[in-house]
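Data card: per-record layout.
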Amino acid sequence: MIDLVKKYVENRIQLVKFNFIGAIANVSASLVSSFLLLIMGILILLMLSISLAFWLATFFESEVIGFALVGLIYLILLVVYITFAKDKIELKIKDKIVEEALADDDDFNESIEYEE
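The structure for this 116-residue chain is written out next.
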């Protein structure tokens, strides 16, 4: 009987380790994917910003004014973000990370319910 209890405890510890590794894998994969999307988005935004700056420069006949206007647009977007959306977006990111980390725990809890 004691050997069975020891084996059960060892199996449970191993299962917790595997669930923890799975949660880390989910969060890591999500972060890497998000990071790659961020890099691609930044490059696209950079190219579009340079294009917009040169296009505005043709209207004002000054590259300085074209690039300054694009900078002003981003400054306005930054102020709006900080003022209205920063806390909401941070909360959504935290919720998504926790949801990814606990995704394996839901599978684990469901399997336990069926065994009982």
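Known properties of this structure: The helical segments are 2-60, 63-115. The mean pLDDT is 85.

See the next section for split statistics.
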